[in-house]
Amino acid sequence: MTIAHILESHNWRRRKDLVDKVFTPDAEFWHPFFIVRSRHEILGIYQLWAANNVKINVTYDRVVPDSANNVVVVDLLETVRVWWLPLTWFGIPINIILHTVFDVEETPEGYIYTRQEVSPLPPNLHVNA
Prior knowledge:
Layout: H1 3-8, H2 12-22, E1 23-31, E2 34-36, H3 39-51, E3 53-66, E4 71-82, H4 86-89, E5 94-107, E6 110-120
Parallel strand pairs: 1-6
Antiparallel strand pairs: 1-2, 3-4, 4-5, 5-6
């Protein structure tokens, strides 16, 4: 099972195990509205997001690892159906275009995320709009 499948699913235990595996204990999550500074708080963000969305689909437009700078850049389209918005009852999806940068650190087991920064991607830069 891929990281995307786990994050899109509503399996709370798998999501916790994934966050514990791929984020350092002091990892940061930078969002346009808030910053959290621990793996535990990052898990809370992912859990809250999943709880508020009955269906989450992610399409990755670009994934670019930059080992020289220890970052991975991801551009994606996230399609959600939020349970508390009336439009979603009619099957109208909400599309969110995001640009995400992960800072990574090499460990004996592979790379682990130390920071995730999310920002909206301007529509004209979106590859598969």
